[in-house]
Specification:
single chain; alpha/beta; Rossmann fold; 2 domains; seven-stranded parallel β-sheet; 9 helices; 7 strands; binds NADP nicotinamide-adenine-dinucleotide phosphate
């Protein structure tokens, strides 16, 4: 299937590793130009090299997406490199294992900044520019825990639920102008966030007094497919929603969780 992404000007936040890097790889393979955004310039350069070396269609922007001017800076950089913006993937996000009663005001605020204020500012800057050209795609990478709160980190769950609502609100405002906005809701992914030393698996093991292997086994056992997802599996759905082929999808919150959240919407 031709996804119609050739020469599309795309921005992916959190592109230095994980789901964002896998998404950038797919978009680049489809012939799109991609601006990779993350906080570390060196890590982004390594990622861009891994994707395509000195390819002029791959550019990087070192930026903390929680900066108040992040929307304007992303738009300016994308238009500066590629002449316009067609696609925005709001993917930057993170979590730590922290029980409800141990979450501080700062934990709540930083999760809100990263998962709500940042995608809101980026959409507020990018969507009108896409609307002027009557074509655009925005995908917000949310979480299954935004549909069914997880006690692993309630601030994460609540802000991901807010990001789903934000996504729907922007979708309603822009669909009639050709800008299609959707969310994806992945379940646990067997990538760095979980598996890296000190990552979620190690944190959960410490918190529950069990081994890292037991944490990963029980996380897999909770999924109807019996395993964690892979990063390319999430990226494939994101890339489809960025594409011409998704021309009748707007305001959706696509579960990519192996069937973990037992609802049909
Ligand atoms: N992994 C999972 O199990 C899972 C499940 C459901 C949903 N998700 C969601 O999927 C998205 C990607 O997760 P992942 O597993 O790929 O995580 P990851 O491997 O930890 O990657 C996170 C990316 O976000 C960037 N980032 C973090 N904070 C940032 C900031 N303030 N400004 C700019 N960039 C920032 C990181 O780069 P720097 O640190 O260099 O800035 C990195 O590129 C997140 O929104 C996450 O909530 C993940």
């Amino acid at each position: 299937m031709d996804l119609g992404l050739t020469d599309r000007a795309c921005v992916v936040t959190g592109a230095s590793r994980g789901i964002g890097l896998a998404t950038s790889r797919l978009l680049a393979c489809e012939g799109a130009s991609v601006l990779l955004v993350g906080r570390s310039g060196d890590t982004l350069s390594d990622a861009a090299r891994a994707l395509g070396g000195a390819d002029r269609r791959l550019r990087t922007l070192a930026l903390d997406v929680t900066s108040p001017d992040a929307g304007e800076r992303v738009l300016e950089s994308c238009v500066g490199h590629f002449g316009r913006i067609d696609v925005l993937v709001n993917n930057a996000g993170t979590s730590v294992v922290r029980p409800l009663q141990e979450l501080t005001e700062e934990d709540w605020r930083s999760q809100l900044e990263l998962h709500v204020m940042a995608p809101m500012r980026l959409m507020k800057a990018a969507a009108p520019a896409m609307a002027e050209r009557r074509w655009g795609r925005i995908v917000n990478v949310c979480s299954s825990s935004g549909k069914r709160p997880s006690q692993t980190n309630v601030a994460y769950s609540v802000t991901k639920a807010a990001e789903l609502s934000l996504s729907r609100a922007f979708a309603d405002a822009y669909a009639s102008q050709g800008v299609l906005i959707n969310a994806v809701a992945p379940g646990p992914v067997g990538g760095e966030l979980w598996l890296a030393p000190g990552g979620l698996a190690d944190q959960a093991a410490r918190a529950r007094g069990v081994s890292r292997e037991e944490v990963l086994e029980s996380a897999a056992a909770r999924q109807p497919l019996g395993r964690l997802a892979s990063e390319p599996e999430i990226a494939a759905v994101v890339a489809f929603l960025c594409s011409e082929a998704a021309s009748n999808v707007a305001g959706a919150a696509w579960s990519v969780d192996g069937g973990a959240v037992p609802v049909i919407i």
